[in-house]
Amino acid sequence: MSDKPLSSQLCRCWLFLPAGDPLKTLLAAAESPADALIAEFEDFTAPEKRPAARAQLSKVIEAWRAAGKRTAARINPLSDADGLRDLEAAMAAGVDVVALPKVSMPGHVTQLGEAVGAQERKLGRPIGSTELLPNIESAAGLVRTIDIVTASPRVEAALVASEDMANDLQCERGRDGSELRYVRERFLVECRAAGIQPIDCPYTWTDLEGVAADSAYARRLGYTSKSAVSLEHAMTIQAALTPGAEAIEQARLKVRAFEAARQRGEGRVEVAGSLVEMPIYAEAQRLLKRAALYGLLNDDDQEE
User: Fold this and answer.
1) Is 277 a known ligand-binding residue?
2) Is there a single domain that holds both residue 234 and residue 254?
3) Residue 301: predicted pLDDT
4) In this protein, which residues make up the domain named HpcH/HpaI aldolase/citrate lyase (predicted)?
5) Is 137 a known ligand-binding residue?
6) 51, 123, 122, 38: which is closest to 85 by C-alpha?
7) What is the spatial distance between Cα 70 and Cα 250, in angstroms, rounded to a whole number?
8) Is 179 assigned to a binding site?
C-alpha cells in the first residue's frame, strides 16, 4: 500500500472504529482494506472511556497514517461537554478530517470550522489544512444538505447516516434498506449539486451478502464512497466501489468507438447494444480516470 493516503474524493470505504477500543485493536485496524479510518468518539465510545481514548489517539493516527490511510476522528457535538475535548485531541493527533455528527444546519459547520481554525493557529498548522466531514443524520439535516455542505470550503465530502436517520424518520428498518432509498437518493443529488463527495450510509447488519447487495445498489445510484461500522465489511465495500476489469474494458470500448465515430462526423455509435452518446462517453472517461488514480490501468489504457 502507498504511504500517501487517497483524497476524500477517492476514498471508497470509510470505516468507523470505536476510539475507546484497546490500543492494540486500533493499531491493528491499520491493516484493514478501508481507504479511510475514523476514530469514533460519539455513539461508539462511552463517556467514561473518552479520556483514555483521547490520550491514545496520537499513536493511533500515527499508525494509520503510516499505513497510507486517510485519518479522521468523529467528535461529539460542540454543544456537548466532550465535543471540544475531542476536537483538541483530534487536532493534536493531526487527523486529516474532523467528522461532526448530527449536523442539521449550516451553523454547525461554521462553528466547527472556526473551532478547527483556532486549533490550527494554536498548533502552528496551515489554516484550512484540516477537512470537515458533516454527518447528516436527521430529516432537518437532509433537507438542508446543500446549504450545510457549502457552509465551509473545508468540506470536501459529507456522510449520510442510516440508524439515526431512520430513528428520526420513525420508519421501520429492513435489510433491503428500502425505507431509506429516498434519503440516499436525495443526499447524493444535493452533494453532487454542491460539488462535494457523498458518502453512503453504513449497512448495519452483519451478513456479507447483504453488504454486497447494498454496496452494489449504492454504486448503481452513483455513490463511489460508502461508510462502514464493521471491520468485516470493508473488503466487500472496497471491491464493490472499485472499477472492475469488465467495467474498465467496457469503458475502453465505448471511448474508442465514440472517438472513432466523431472522427467520421457521427454524433453517436452503438456498442454492445447500447447507443453511446456524449454523456455515456463522459461517464466512460470518468470511470477510466478513476481507475487510473487507483493504479488499475496498463500503459495502453493510460493513453486513452
Assistant:
1) no
2) no
3) 55
4) 13-229
5) yes
6) 51
7) 30
8) no
